[in-house]
Amino acid sequence: GAVWVNLYIPSQLRWMQGSSQIELEQSGDYPHHDTVTMRVKASSPAVFTLYLRMPAWAENHKISINGRPASTIASKGFASIHRTWKTGDTVDLELPAKLHLEPISPRHQLTAALMHGPLVLFALTDAQASITQRQALAARRTGNTERTIDTATGPLKLVPITHVGDAPYTTYLTLT
Q: Which one of 67, 100, 169, 174 is least enclosed by Cβ atoms within 10 Å?
């Protein structure tokens, strides 16, 4: 058997693996923080492969099982862990997210969205934000989901779309 996990699953996933009832519970504040923990509950030990989605932006990811580094096989964007799973087993997945710029198109490299891992960060402003690439990539964390870029005209706050609210915003920054 196999279970495919893409980190945007519900916090609990339940299924039958042979005659064993399995529950996989996910915790953590992904994608706002880098670590996800999954806990296994099994009515009896069960053998299956757990496939974990490894996003392209997550360089140097780390997987541990029960606190020990796991040996995994990575292929086509997924890491696989085949073993006998039992109640109490934990999987810790660390997906180090970095700031990076995503140009609007290959022909327009100087118009780009600032991203933190999978999240687009929206600049809270009613004017077109014009900054250097160095300023953008030096955005500092100023809240749980907030980043700030120091610009010549003052601080520029950036947040994921879920935290924009009614504020004016822009998705793309003009790089100078």
A: 67
Largest Cα–Cα distance of the chain, in whole Å? 64
Tell me the three state secondary structure of residue 109.
strand
Give the whole-angstrom CA distance, residue 119 versus residue 108: 21
Tokens (6 digits) for 24: 């996989």
The total number of residues shown for the chain amounts to 176
DSSP for residue 163: G
How many whole angstroms separate alpha carbon 39 and alpha carbon 20? 16
DSSP string, 40-91: EEESS-EEEEEEEE--TT-TT-EEEETTEEPP-EEETTEEEEEEEE-TT-EE
**Given this model, what pLDDT does residue 1 score?**
64
pLDDT for the residue 10: 53
CA 170 – CA 2 distance, rounded (Å): 42
pTM: 0.77
Q: Are strands 173-175 and 130-131 parallel, antiparallel or unpaired?
A: parallel
Instruction: Tell me the pLDDT tens digit for each residue of 24-40.
Output: 999 988 888 889 999 99
Inter-residue contact 40 to 87 (CB < 8 Å): yes
**Residue 128, CA atoms < 13 Å, CB-side half-sphere:** 7
